[in-house]
Amino acid sequence: MQMIKFDQSFLQKMKEKLDVELLGVASMEGSVPAELKDKATALLPGVKSAVVVGKEIYGEIIALLKPSKEAGAAECGELLGPHAEYLTGRLNRAIYDLAALFKKEGYRSLPLPSAGCPTDMRFLSAIFSYKHAAVFAGLGTIGRHSLLITPEYGPRVRLACLLTQAPLEGSSAKLKDRCIDCDACIRACPANALNRSQHGEPYSINKFACQAYRQMGFACSICMKVCDEALG
Question: How far is CA 178 from the centre of its chain?
Answer without folding.
Answer: 16
